[in-house]
Amino acid sequence: MRTEELTLNLGPSHPSTHGVCRLVVRLDGEVVTHVEPVIGHLHRGIEKMAENRTYLQVVPLTDRLDYVGSMYANWAYCRAVERLAGIRVPERAEYLRVIVCELQRIASHMMGIGSSAADTGATSAFLYAFAQRDLVIDLFEALCGARLTYNYVRPGGVAFDLPEGWVEQCRSFVAQHPSAMLEIDELFFGNVIARARLKGIGVLDADTAVAWGVSGPSARGSGVDWDLRRDDPYSVYPRFDFDVVVGSNGDAYDRARVRLWECIESCRIIEQALDQLEPGPVMAEGLPRLLAPRPGDAYDHIESARGSLGVYLVSDGSVRPYRMKVRSPAFCNLAVLPLIATGHTLSDLLVILGSLDPVFGEVDR
Amino acid sequence: MATIEDIAEFLDKAPGGGILLTTVDAVMNWSRGKSLWTFPMGTACCAMEFIAASFSRFDFDRHGTIPRPDPRHCDVMVVAGTITHKMAPAVKRIYEQMPEPKWVVAMGNCAVSGGIFYYDTYSVVRGVDEFLPVDVYIAGCPPRPEALQDAILQLRKKIASESISPRRRRPVASELPQPSDPRKGDLEEQPLARSKATAGGPDV
Known about the structure:
The structure holds two protein chains of two kinds. Helix content of chain A is 48%, strand content 13%. In chain A, 54% of the residues are buried. The termini of chain A are far apart. In chain A, a hairpin with a 5-residue loop joins β7 and β8 (321-327). By secondary structure, chain A is an alpha+beta fold. In chain A, α4 (91-119) runs antiparallel to α14 (346-356) and α5 (123-144) packs antiparallel against α6. Chain A has one domain: Cytochrome-c3 Hydrogenase, chain B. The longest helix of chain A is centred in the N-terminal third of the chain and has 29 residues, at 91-119. Chain B is α/β, with parallel strands linked by helices. In chain B, 40% of the residues lie in helices and 9% in strands. Chain B has a four-stranded parallel sheet. In chain B, β2, α4 (88-97) and β3 (103-107) form a beta-alpha-beta unit. In chain B, α1 runs antiparallel to α2, α2 packs antiparallel against α6 and α3 (45-54) crosses α6 (145-160). The longest helix of chain B has 18 residues, at 17-34. Chain B starts with a helix and ends with a helix. Classes of the chains: A alpha+beta, B alpha/beta. Chain A binds chain B through residues 12-15, 19-20, 40-45, 48-49, 52-53, 60-61, 64, 67-68, 111, 126-127, 130-131, 134, 137, 147-149, 360-361, and chain B through 40-45, 47-49, 51-52, 55-57, 69, 81-82, 84, 86-87, 90-91, 94, 116-117, 119-124, 141-142, 144.
Protein backbone atom coordinates (compact mmCIF):
# COMPACT_ATOMS: atom_id res chain seq x y z
CA MET A 1 0.00 0.00 0.00
CA ARG A 2 1.28 3.43 -0.89
CA THR A 3 1.65 5.73 2.08
CA GLU A 4 2.29 9.42 2.21
CA GLU A 5 3.78 11.68 4.82
CA LEU A 6 1.33 14.14 6.31
CA THR A 7 2.33 17.57 7.53
CA LEU A 8 0.07 18.72 10.32
CA ASN A 9 -0.09 22.14 11.85
CA LEU A 10 -0.90 22.08 15.56
CA GLY A 11 -1.74 25.37 17.16
CA PRO A 12 -1.06 28.20 17.84
CA SER A 13 -4.40 27.94 19.59
CA HIS A 14 -4.75 24.35 20.67
CA PRO A 15 -6.08 23.23 24.06
CA SER A 16 -3.16 20.88 24.64
CA THR A 17 -0.22 23.03 23.64
CA HIS A 18 -0.19 24.80 27.04
CA GLY A 19 -0.19 28.25 25.58
CA VAL A 20 0.44 29.66 22.17
CA CYS A 21 2.89 27.19 20.72
CA ARG A 22 2.62 26.12 17.13
CA LEU A 23 3.97 22.69 16.30
CA VAL A 24 4.62 21.71 12.72
CA VAL A 25 4.42 17.95 12.82
CA ARG A 26 5.26 15.46 10.08
CA LEU A 27 3.36 12.23 10.50
CA ASP A 28 3.74 8.73 9.15
CA GLY A 29 0.27 7.41 9.96
CA GLU A 30 -0.01 8.12 13.68
CA VAL A 31 3.74 8.22 14.29
CA VAL A 32 5.58 11.51 14.52
CA THR A 33 8.62 11.54 12.26
CA HIS A 34 9.56 15.17 12.78
CA VAL A 35 8.32 17.99 14.95
CA GLU A 36 9.29 21.61 14.87
CA PRO A 37 8.09 24.06 17.52
CA VAL A 38 7.35 27.51 16.10
CA ILE A 39 7.64 30.00 18.90
CA GLY A 40 7.18 33.75 19.16
CA HIS A 41 3.38 33.98 19.24
CA LEU A 42 3.65 35.61 22.65
CA HIS A 43 6.79 37.63 22.04
CA ARG A 44 6.08 40.88 23.85
CA GLY A 45 9.56 42.35 23.81
CA ILE A 46 9.95 42.44 27.60
CA GLU A 47 13.76 42.50 27.38
CA LYS A 48 13.59 45.49 25.07
CA MET A 49 10.98 47.24 27.19
CA ALA A 50 13.25 46.91 30.22
CA GLU A 51 15.71 49.25 28.55
CA ASN A 52 13.12 52.04 28.79
CA ARG A 53 12.21 51.46 32.43
CA THR A 54 14.01 52.34 35.64
CA TYR A 55 15.33 49.41 37.66
CA LEU A 56 12.28 49.37 39.91
CA GLN A 57 9.82 49.67 37.03
CA VAL A 58 11.16 46.49 35.43
CA VAL A 59 9.90 44.33 38.32
CA PRO A 60 6.24 44.28 37.13
CA LEU A 61 7.44 43.28 33.66
CA THR A 62 9.27 40.26 35.07
CA ASP A 63 5.94 39.15 36.58
CA ARG A 64 4.60 38.60 33.10
CA LEU A 65 7.51 36.41 31.96
CA ASP A 66 6.65 33.19 33.68
CA TYR A 67 3.06 33.84 34.64
CA VAL A 68 2.64 30.49 36.39
CA GLY A 69 5.54 31.32 38.71
CA SER A 70 5.87 35.08 38.85
CA MET A 71 7.87 35.18 42.08
CA TYR A 72 10.86 33.48 40.47
CA ALA A 73 11.36 36.04 37.74
CA ASN A 74 10.94 38.79 40.35
CA TRP A 75 13.58 37.21 42.49
CA ALA A 76 16.07 36.39 39.75
CA TYR A 77 15.86 39.93 38.44
CA CYS A 78 16.18 41.48 41.89
CA ARG A 79 19.21 39.31 42.66
CA ALA A 80 20.89 40.55 39.50
CA VAL A 81 20.12 44.17 40.42
CA GLU A 82 21.39 43.64 43.96
CA ARG A 83 24.58 42.12 42.65
CA LEU A 84 25.00 44.99 40.22
CA ALA A 85 24.35 47.71 42.80
CA GLY A 86 25.91 45.93 45.76
CA ILE A 87 22.77 45.93 47.92
CA ARG A 88 22.65 43.83 51.08
CA VAL A 89 19.27 42.27 51.68
CA PRO A 90 17.98 41.96 55.29
CA GLU A 91 17.77 38.44 56.62
CA ARG A 92 14.01 38.47 57.15
CA ALA A 93 13.50 39.50 53.53
CA GLU A 94 15.61 36.53 52.40
CA TYR A 95 13.48 34.19 54.48
CA LEU A 96 10.29 35.69 53.08
CA ARG A 97 11.65 35.28 49.56
CA VAL A 98 12.41 31.63 50.22
CA ILE A 99 8.95 31.04 51.68
CA VAL A 100 7.05 32.70 48.83
CA CYS A 101 9.20 31.03 46.19
CA GLU A 102 8.69 27.57 47.67
CA LEU A 103 4.96 28.27 47.80
CA GLN A 104 5.21 29.40 44.20
CA ARG A 105 6.96 26.15 43.33
CA ILE A 106 3.98 24.26 44.74
CA ALA A 107 1.52 26.44 42.80
CA SER A 108 3.47 26.04 39.59
CA HIS A 109 3.95 22.28 39.96
CA MET A 110 0.23 21.87 40.62
CA MET A 111 -0.31 23.38 37.19
CA GLY A 112 2.40 21.13 35.71
CA ILE A 113 1.08 17.93 37.23
CA GLY A 114 -2.48 18.96 36.49
CA SER A 115 -1.84 19.60 32.85
CA SER A 116 0.07 16.31 32.55
CA ALA A 117 -2.99 14.65 34.03
CA ALA A 118 -5.39 16.52 31.76
CA ASP A 119 -3.33 15.54 28.71
CA THR A 120 -3.83 11.89 29.54
CA GLY A 121 -7.53 12.41 30.11
CA ALA A 122 -7.51 12.48 33.92
CA THR A 123 -9.30 15.76 34.44
CA SER A 124 -10.26 14.91 38.00
CA ALA A 125 -6.59 14.83 39.03
CA PHE A 126 -6.27 18.33 37.56
CA LEU A 127 -9.17 19.47 39.74
CA TYR A 128 -7.52 18.00 42.84
CA ALA A 129 -4.26 19.72 41.99
CA PHE A 130 -5.95 23.03 41.28
CA ALA A 131 -7.72 22.98 44.63
CA GLN A 132 -4.26 22.97 46.24
CA ARG A 133 -3.10 25.72 43.92
CA ASP A 134 -6.04 27.88 44.95
CA LEU A 135 -4.97 27.59 48.59
CA VAL A 136 -1.49 28.88 47.70
CA ILE A 137 -3.03 31.72 45.70
CA ASP A 138 -5.09 32.65 48.78
CA LEU A 139 -1.86 32.98 50.75
CA PHE A 140 -0.33 35.21 48.08
CA GLU A 141 -3.48 37.30 47.90
CA ALA A 142 -3.36 37.88 51.64
CA LEU A 143 0.31 38.81 51.31
CA CYS A 144 0.33 41.19 48.38
CA GLY A 145 -3.21 41.55 47.08
CA ALA A 146 -2.67 39.91 43.71
CA ARG A 147 -3.55 36.42 42.61
CA LEU A 148 -1.12 36.02 39.76
CA THR A 149 1.19 38.96 39.12
CA TYR A 150 2.63 39.77 42.51
CA ASN A 151 5.37 42.38 42.13
CA TYR A 152 6.35 41.31 45.63
CA VAL A 153 10.11 40.83 45.51
CA ARG A 154 11.79 44.20 44.97
CA PRO A 155 15.45 45.18 44.69
CA GLY A 156 16.65 45.40 48.29
CA GLY A 157 14.06 43.19 49.92
CA VAL A 158 10.35 42.49 49.64
CA ALA A 159 7.45 44.91 49.28
CA PHE A 160 5.43 44.03 52.38
CA ASP A 161 5.89 42.26 55.67
CA LEU A 162 3.62 39.35 56.54
CA PRO A 163 0.05 40.31 57.47
CA GLU A 164 -1.43 39.18 60.76
CA GLY A 165 -2.36 35.52 60.89
CA TRP A 166 -0.45 34.68 57.71
CA VAL A 167 2.07 32.38 59.39
CA GLU A 168 -0.73 30.29 60.91
CA GLN A 169 -2.54 30.13 57.57
CA CYS A 170 0.69 29.07 55.88
CA ARG A 171 1.42 26.46 58.52
CA SER A 172 -2.01 24.92 58.17
CA PHE A 173 -1.55 24.78 54.39
CA VAL A 174 1.86 23.15 54.71
CA ALA A 175 0.50 20.65 57.23
CA GLN A 176 -2.22 19.36 54.91
CA HIS A 177 -0.34 19.61 51.61
CA PRO A 178 1.84 16.43 51.71
CA SER A 179 -1.17 14.21 52.39
CA ALA A 180 -3.00 15.84 49.47
CA MET A 181 0.04 15.13 47.30
CA LEU A 182 0.07 11.49 48.38
CA GLU A 183 -3.60 11.33 47.46
CA ILE A 184 -2.82 12.62 43.96
CA ASP A 185 0.09 10.19 43.79
CA GLU A 186 -2.27 7.32 44.48
CA LEU A 187 -5.14 8.70 42.42
CA PHE A 188 -3.20 9.61 39.31
CA PHE A 189 0.30 8.12 39.29
CA GLY A 190 -0.94 4.82 40.67
CA ASN A 191 -3.60 4.60 38.01
CA VAL A 192 -3.00 1.95 35.38
CA ILE A 193 -4.12 4.28 32.57
CA ALA A 194 -1.74 7.04 33.63
CA ARG A 195 1.10 4.54 33.86
CA ALA A 196 0.34 3.20 30.42
CA ARG A 197 0.16 6.72 28.96
CA LEU A 198 3.22 8.17 30.70
CA LYS A 199 5.75 5.37 31.27
CA GLY A 200 8.38 5.02 28.59
CA ILE A 201 7.06 8.08 26.74
CA GLY A 202 9.49 10.78 25.64
CA VAL A 203 12.61 9.26 27.18
CA LEU A 204 15.34 11.84 27.69
CA ASP A 205 18.69 10.43 28.78
CA ALA A 206 20.90 12.31 31.21
CA ASP A 207 23.70 13.10 28.74
CA THR A 208 21.30 14.63 26.21
CA ALA A 209 19.62 16.61 28.95
CA VAL A 210 22.93 18.13 30.02
CA ALA A 211 24.08 18.71 26.44
CA TRP A 212 20.88 20.57 25.55
CA GLY A 213 20.85 22.68 28.69
CA VAL A 214 17.72 21.10 30.12
CA SER A 215 17.33 21.97 33.78
CA GLY A 216 14.88 21.72 36.62
CA PRO A 217 12.47 18.83 37.13
CA SER A 218 12.69 17.95 33.43
CA ALA A 219 16.41 17.19 33.85
CA ARG A 220 16.07 15.67 37.31
CA GLY A 221 13.52 13.24 35.95
CA SER A 222 16.34 11.91 33.77
CA GLY A 223 18.61 11.39 36.75
CA VAL A 224 20.61 14.62 36.45
CA ASP A 225 21.32 15.37 40.10
CA TRP A 226 21.50 19.15 39.75
CA ASP A 227 19.63 21.71 41.78
CA LEU A 228 20.88 25.25 42.18
CA ARG A 229 19.39 25.44 45.67
CA ARG A 230 21.94 22.84 46.76
CA ASP A 231 24.70 22.98 44.15
CA ASP A 232 25.09 26.75 43.84
CA PRO A 233 23.47 27.78 47.11
CA TYR A 234 21.97 31.24 47.18
CA SER A 235 20.02 33.22 49.75
CA VAL A 236 19.50 31.24 52.97
CA TYR A 237 19.06 27.81 51.36
CA PRO A 238 22.19 26.31 53.01
CA ARG A 239 20.39 26.58 56.36
CA PHE A 240 17.63 24.17 55.35
CA ASP A 241 17.60 20.43 55.32
CA PHE A 242 15.96 19.11 52.16
CA ASP A 243 16.46 16.43 49.53
CA VAL A 244 16.78 16.89 45.80
CA VAL A 245 14.29 14.59 44.12
CA VAL A 246 15.79 12.68 41.21
CA GLY A 247 14.09 10.33 38.79
CA SER A 248 15.71 7.49 36.91
CA ASN A 249 14.00 6.69 33.62
CA GLY A 250 13.72 10.17 32.11
CA ASP A 251 10.24 9.54 30.76
CA ALA A 252 7.12 11.68 31.12
CA TYR A 253 6.10 9.69 34.19
CA ASP A 254 9.32 10.44 36.05
CA ARG A 255 9.30 14.11 35.11
CA ALA A 256 5.75 14.56 36.40
CA ARG A 257 6.40 12.53 39.52
CA VAL A 258 9.57 14.45 40.38
CA ARG A 259 7.37 17.55 40.44
CA LEU A 260 5.00 15.91 42.86
CA TRP A 261 7.72 14.93 45.32
CA GLU A 262 9.37 18.32 45.01
CA CYS A 263 6.19 19.84 46.41
CA ILE A 264 6.58 17.72 49.53
CA GLU A 265 10.22 18.82 49.83
CA SER A 266 9.09 22.42 49.41
CA CYS A 267 6.76 21.95 52.37
CA ARG A 268 9.74 20.85 54.46
CA ILE A 269 11.67 23.97 53.48
CA ILE A 270 8.72 26.26 54.26
CA GLU A 271 8.25 24.67 57.69
CA GLN A 272 11.92 25.18 58.55
CA ALA A 273 11.88 28.74 57.21
CA LEU A 274 8.81 29.63 59.28
CA ASP A 275 10.53 28.19 62.37
CA GLN A 276 13.72 30.20 61.78
CA LEU A 277 11.94 33.43 60.85
CA GLU A 278 13.06 36.32 63.10
CA PRO A 279 11.49 39.78 63.27
CA GLY A 280 13.36 42.54 61.50
CA PRO A 281 13.27 44.89 58.54
CA VAL A 282 12.15 43.55 55.16
CA MET A 283 13.77 46.21 52.99
CA ALA A 284 17.37 47.40 52.87
CA GLU A 285 17.97 50.75 54.55
CA GLY A 286 19.02 53.89 52.71
CA LEU A 287 18.18 52.84 49.18
CA PRO A 288 17.89 55.76 46.75
CA ARG A 289 14.59 56.34 44.97
CA LEU A 290 16.31 55.83 41.63
CA LEU A 291 18.92 53.13 41.52
CA ALA A 292 21.83 53.97 39.26
CA PRO A 293 24.44 51.21 39.59
CA ARG A 294 27.95 51.91 38.38
CA PRO A 295 28.78 50.66 34.86
CA GLY A 296 29.25 46.94 34.68
CA ASP A 297 27.29 43.74 34.31
CA ALA A 298 25.87 41.07 36.56
CA TYR A 299 24.34 37.63 36.15
CA ASP A 300 22.45 35.72 38.74
CA HIS A 301 20.39 32.59 38.57
CA ILE A 302 17.93 30.79 40.80
CA GLU A 303 16.19 27.45 40.67
CA SER A 304 12.72 28.17 39.38
CA ALA A 305 9.95 25.62 39.03
CA ARG A 306 11.10 25.01 35.46
CA GLY A 307 14.85 25.04 36.02
CA SER A 308 17.74 27.41 36.13
CA LEU A 309 16.33 30.91 35.59
CA GLY A 310 19.02 33.53 35.05
CA VAL A 311 18.96 37.25 34.48
CA TYR A 312 21.89 39.09 32.94
CA LEU A 313 21.97 42.87 33.36
CA VAL A 314 24.30 45.42 31.85
CA SER A 315 24.48 48.89 33.36
CA ASP A 316 25.94 51.98 31.72
CA GLY A 317 25.65 54.00 34.91
CA SER A 318 22.23 55.48 34.14
CA VAL A 319 18.96 54.80 35.95
CA ARG A 320 17.83 52.33 33.31
CA PRO A 321 19.35 48.97 32.46
CA TYR A 322 21.40 49.09 29.27
CA ARG A 323 20.46 45.51 28.46
CA MET A 324 18.50 42.77 30.13
CA LYS A 325 18.74 39.15 29.04
CA VAL A 326 16.71 36.36 30.56
CA ARG A 327 18.05 32.83 30.45
CA SER A 328 14.75 31.06 30.34
CA PRO A 329 14.59 27.41 31.43
CA ALA A 330 11.30 26.87 29.60
CA PHE A 331 12.93 27.87 26.31
CA CYS A 332 15.87 25.51 26.77
CA ASN A 333 13.62 22.68 27.88
CA LEU A 334 11.37 23.13 24.86
CA ALA A 335 14.37 22.85 22.53
CA VAL A 336 14.73 19.19 23.37
CA LEU A 337 11.15 18.35 22.29
CA PRO A 338 11.97 17.37 18.66
CA LEU A 339 14.58 14.94 19.95
CA ILE A 340 12.41 13.08 22.41
CA ALA A 341 9.06 13.22 20.62
CA THR A 342 10.18 11.63 17.35
CA GLY A 343 8.94 8.07 17.02
CA HIS A 344 5.99 8.49 19.36
CA THR A 345 2.37 8.84 18.32
CA LEU A 346 0.63 12.18 17.91
CA SER A 347 -1.35 11.77 21.13
CA ASP A 348 1.90 11.12 23.00
CA LEU A 349 3.49 14.23 21.51
CA LEU A 350 1.16 16.44 23.52
CA VAL A 351 1.84 14.42 26.67
CA ILE A 352 5.57 14.89 26.12
CA LEU A 353 5.13 18.62 25.57
CA GLY A 354 3.08 18.81 28.77
CA SER A 355 5.69 16.85 30.71
CA LEU A 356 8.33 19.46 29.84
CA ASP A 357 5.95 22.03 31.41
CA PRO A 358 6.74 25.01 29.19
CA VAL A 359 5.25 28.44 29.87
CA PHE A 360 5.17 30.44 26.69
CA GLY A 361 5.40 33.81 28.33
CA GLU A 362 8.88 32.77 29.34
CA VAL A 363 9.76 30.96 26.13
CA ASP A 364 8.89 33.94 23.93
CA ARG A 365 9.53 36.69 26.49
CA MET B 1 -36.45 26.55 4.91
CA ALA B 2 -36.93 29.98 6.34
CA THR B 3 -33.99 31.36 8.27
CA ILE B 4 -34.24 33.65 11.26
CA GLU B 5 -33.40 36.60 9.05
CA ASP B 6 -36.30 35.78 6.75
CA ILE B 7 -38.69 35.68 9.69
CA ALA B 8 -37.35 38.99 10.95
CA GLU B 9 -37.73 40.58 7.54
CA PHE B 10 -41.29 39.27 7.19
CA LEU B 11 -42.28 40.47 10.65
CA ASP B 12 -40.74 43.88 10.03
CA LYS B 13 -42.90 44.34 6.92
CA ALA B 14 -46.12 42.75 8.16
CA PRO B 15 -48.68 45.11 9.73
CA GLY B 16 -48.41 44.77 13.49
CA GLY B 17 -45.48 42.45 13.04
CA GLY B 18 -43.37 44.51 15.42
CA ILE B 19 -45.39 43.26 18.36
CA LEU B 20 -44.82 39.68 17.31
CA LEU B 21 -41.14 40.41 16.64
CA THR B 22 -40.55 41.49 20.22
CA THR B 23 -42.05 38.22 21.38
CA VAL B 24 -39.84 36.24 19.05
CA ASP B 25 -36.89 38.32 20.24
CA ALA B 26 -37.72 37.54 23.85
CA VAL B 27 -37.77 33.81 23.15
CA MET B 28 -34.59 33.92 21.07
CA ASN B 29 -32.69 36.01 23.61
CA TRP B 30 -33.85 33.85 26.47
CA SER B 31 -32.52 30.74 24.77
CA ARG B 32 -29.31 32.36 23.53
CA GLY B 33 -28.35 33.87 26.87
CA LYS B 34 -28.82 30.77 28.98
CA SER B 35 -26.00 28.60 27.76
CA LEU B 36 -23.04 30.61 26.56
CA TRP B 37 -20.25 28.30 25.56
CA THR B 38 -16.93 30.07 25.62
CA PHE B 39 -13.93 29.66 23.42
CA PRO B 40 -10.88 30.17 25.63
CA MET B 41 -8.60 32.24 23.43
CA GLY B 42 -6.08 32.12 26.26
CA THR B 43 -2.63 33.30 25.36
CA ALA B 44 -1.01 34.57 28.55
CA CYS B 45 -1.53 35.21 32.25
CA CYS B 46 -5.30 35.77 31.99
CA ALA B 47 -5.65 32.22 30.72
CA MET B 48 -4.64 31.04 34.21
CA GLU B 49 -7.53 33.00 35.69
CA PHE B 50 -9.80 31.63 32.99
CA ILE B 51 -8.81 28.10 34.05
CA ALA B 52 -9.33 29.04 37.70
CA ALA B 53 -12.79 30.40 36.87
CA SER B 54 -13.84 27.18 35.18
CA PHE B 55 -12.58 24.95 38.01
CA SER B 56 -14.12 23.83 41.27
CA ARG B 57 -13.87 26.94 43.41
CA PHE B 58 -15.38 29.48 41.04
CA ASP B 59 -17.38 26.96 39.04
CA PHE B 60 -18.27 28.54 35.73
CA ASP B 61 -20.65 25.71 34.91
CA ARG B 62 -23.36 27.01 37.20
CA HIS B 63 -23.96 29.83 34.71
CA GLY B 64 -24.25 27.27 31.93
CA THR B 65 -20.91 28.50 30.66
CA ILE B 66 -18.66 25.71 29.46
CA PRO B 67 -15.24 26.28 27.87
CA ARG B 68 -15.01 24.44 24.58
CA PRO B 69 -11.77 24.30 22.60
CA ASP B 70 -13.58 24.08 19.26
CA PRO B 71 -14.66 27.42 17.77
CA ARG B 72 -17.54 25.76 15.93
CA HIS B 73 -19.22 24.88 19.23
CA CYS B 74 -18.88 28.29 20.80
CA ASP B 75 -20.91 31.45 21.23
CA VAL B 76 -18.46 33.67 23.07
CA MET B 77 -14.78 34.16 22.41
CA VAL B 78 -12.96 35.16 25.57
CA VAL B 79 -9.71 36.79 24.52
CA ALA B 80 -7.61 36.22 27.63
CA GLY B 81 -4.11 37.52 27.26
CA THR B 82 -1.75 39.53 25.14
CA ILE B 83 -2.33 39.36 21.40
CA THR B 84 0.82 39.91 19.39
CA HIS B 85 0.99 40.81 15.73
CA LYS B 86 2.05 37.24 15.04
CA MET B 87 -0.95 35.83 16.90
CA ALA B 88 -3.60 38.24 15.59
CA PRO B 89 -4.29 36.49 12.22
CA ALA B 90 -4.93 33.24 14.07
CA VAL B 91 -7.33 34.94 16.48
CA LYS B 92 -9.21 36.56 13.62
CA ARG B 93 -9.41 33.30 11.76
CA ILE B 94 -10.75 31.45 14.79
CA TYR B 95 -13.32 34.21 15.28
CA GLU B 96 -14.44 33.80 11.70
CA GLN B 97 -14.86 30.07 12.25
CA MET B 98 -17.36 30.63 15.04
CA PRO B 99 -21.01 30.40 13.95
CA GLU B 100 -23.36 33.36 14.31
CA PRO B 101 -24.55 34.72 16.66
CA LYS B 102 -21.23 35.32 18.40
CA TRP B 103 -19.84 37.67 20.98
CA VAL B 104 -16.39 38.67 22.16
CA VAL B 105 -15.19 39.34 25.69
CA ALA B 106 -11.85 41.14 26.03
CA MET B 107 -10.43 39.85 29.29
CA GLY B 108 -7.64 41.76 30.93
CA ASN B 109 -5.81 44.94 30.12
CA CYS B 110 -3.72 43.39 27.34
CA ALA B 111 -6.82 42.43 25.39
CA VAL B 112 -8.53 45.72 26.21
CA SER B 113 -5.76 48.09 25.19
CA GLY B 114 -2.37 46.40 25.31
CA GLY B 115 -2.16 47.20 29.02
CA ILE B 116 1.36 47.21 30.38
CA PHE B 117 2.59 46.50 26.86
CA TYR B 118 1.01 49.62 25.36
CA TYR B 119 4.22 51.62 25.28
CA ASP B 120 7.75 50.80 24.14
CA THR B 121 7.03 47.49 22.48
CA TYR B 122 6.94 46.64 18.82
CA SER B 123 5.11 43.35 18.80
CA VAL B 124 1.84 43.77 20.72
CA VAL B 125 -1.56 44.61 19.25
CA ARG B 126 -2.93 47.50 21.29
CA GLY B 127 -6.26 46.00 22.17
CA VAL B 128 -8.13 43.19 20.51
CA ASP B 129 -10.79 45.70 19.33
CA GLU B 130 -8.35 46.71 16.60
CA PHE B 131 -9.65 43.77 14.61
CA LEU B 132 -12.58 42.19 16.50
CA PRO B 133 -15.94 43.65 17.59
CA VAL B 134 -15.77 43.50 21.38
CA ASP B 135 -18.95 43.33 23.47
CA VAL B 136 -17.65 43.29 27.04
CA TYR B 137 -14.37 44.61 28.40
CA ILE B 138 -12.89 43.40 31.69
CA ALA B 139 -10.21 45.49 33.31
CA GLY B 140 -7.50 43.96 35.46
CA CYS B 141 -4.05 42.50 35.09
CA PRO B 142 -5.21 39.80 35.36
CA PRO B 143 -8.90 40.19 36.31
CA ARG B 144 -10.19 37.98 39.09
CA PRO B 145 -12.31 34.97 38.12
CA GLU B 146 -15.31 36.73 39.65
CA ALA B 147 -14.79 39.57 37.18
CA LEU B 148 -14.98 37.10 34.31
CA GLN B 149 -18.19 35.67 35.70
CA ASP B 150 -19.57 39.18 36.04
CA ALA B 151 -18.65 39.81 32.41
CA ILE B 152 -20.68 36.79 31.35
CA LEU B 153 -23.66 38.13 33.34
CA GLN B 154 -23.22 41.54 31.72
CA LEU B 155 -23.11 39.88 28.34
CA ARG B 156 -26.35 38.12 29.17
CA LYS B 157 -27.99 41.46 29.88
CA LYS B 158 -26.74 42.74 26.56
CA ILE B 159 -28.05 39.68 24.76
CA ALA B 160 -31.46 40.19 26.42
CA SER B 161 -31.77 43.55 24.63
CA GLU B 162 -30.78 42.29 21.19
CA SER B 163 -33.12 41.73 18.27
CA ILE B 164 -33.09 39.28 15.40
CA SER B 165 -34.14 42.11 13.09
CA PRO B 166 -31.17 43.75 11.35
CA ARG B 167 -32.97 47.11 11.71
CA ARG B 168 -33.02 46.87 15.48
CA ARG B 169 -29.56 45.43 16.02
CA ARG B 170 -27.56 47.33 18.60
CA PRO B 171 -24.00 48.40 17.89
CA VAL B 172 -21.24 46.56 19.70
CA ALA B 173 -19.31 48.48 22.31
CA SER B 174 -16.06 48.71 20.41
CA GLU B 175 -17.75 50.25 17.37
CA LEU B 176 -19.13 53.19 19.32
CA PRO B 177 -17.14 56.41 18.87
CA GLN B 178 -14.72 56.90 21.73
CA PRO B 179 -13.22 60.38 21.57
CA SER B 180 -11.14 59.77 24.67
CA ASP B 181 -9.32 56.88 23.03
CA PRO B 182 -5.88 58.10 21.99
CA ARG B 183 -5.72 55.57 19.18
CA LYS B 184 -8.94 56.67 17.51
CA GLY B 185 -8.82 60.29 18.61
CA ASP B 186 -11.40 62.80 17.54
CA LEU B 187 -12.95 61.13 14.53
CA GLU B 188 -13.30 64.28 12.43
CA GLU B 189 -10.18 66.19 13.23
CA GLN B 190 -7.43 63.65 13.28
CA PRO B 191 -7.13 62.88 9.52
CA LEU B 192 -7.12 66.62 8.82
CA ALA B 193 -4.32 67.27 11.27
CA ARG B 194 -2.36 64.40 9.84
CA SER B 195 -2.73 65.62 6.24
CA LYS B 196 -1.70 69.11 7.27
CA ALA B 197 1.46 67.78 8.81
CA THR B 198 2.41 65.73 5.78
CA ALA B 199 1.45 68.39 3.24
CA GLY B 200 3.19 71.31 4.85
CA GLY B 201 6.17 69.40 6.15
CA PRO B 202 7.97 70.34 9.33
CA ASP B 203 8.71 73.99 9.95
CA VAL B 204 12.45 74.48 9.80
